[in-house]
Specification:
Strand order of the largest sheet: 3-5-4
Order of helices and strands: EEHHHEHHEEH
Number of helices: 6
Helix content: 55-70%
Shape: elongated
Structural class: alpha+beta
Largest sheet: 3 strands, antiparallel
Strand content: 15-25%
Length: 126
């Protein structure tokens, strides 16, 4: 039995063979695994994490992101391209400026879940 979000959940008792069979049957498709792996690789860069965090706070243009991170326009633009390709950020034009924001609520949820997880892990390590 384990607890999830304040509820106790009964863990089904399986033999080793049954557990292996169930894991094999429920394995993700190769394409899904590949896509998920690529997504997590994008999250694996500290600069991209900083950009995502800044955009989690508010929509920003490239020059604003440069100022927040203390980076050059070309470096920020390169990272934004990677984030756009991964569908983690989107752009919108307002006059001459292009503003970036998180692509949707799923990105915010992934990011915030990660923060909760590492915060929990850090506290548990002490």
């Amino acid at each position: 039995m384990y607890s999830t979000k304040g509820r106790c959940v009964e863990v089904e008792s399986l033999s080793r063979e049954e557990a292996i069979d169930r894991a094999k049957i429920n394995m993700l498709e190769a394409e899904t695994i590949d896509s998920l792996s690529k997504l997590f690789k994008v999250f694996g860069d500290p600069t991209r994490i900083k950009i995502l965090w800044a955009l989690n706070v508010h929509d920003l243009c490239v020059l604003d992101i440069c100022e927040v991170l203390g980076m050059t326009k070309s470096a920020v633009s390169h990272q934004l391209g990677t984030l756009k390709e991964a569908k983690l950020v989107k752009a919108r034009r307002e006059g001459k400026e292009v503003y970036y924001s998180l692509d949707d609520e799923h990105v915010k949820e992934i990011f915030e879940t990660g923060i909760v997880h590492v915060s929990h892990r850090c506290k548990a390590d002490f």
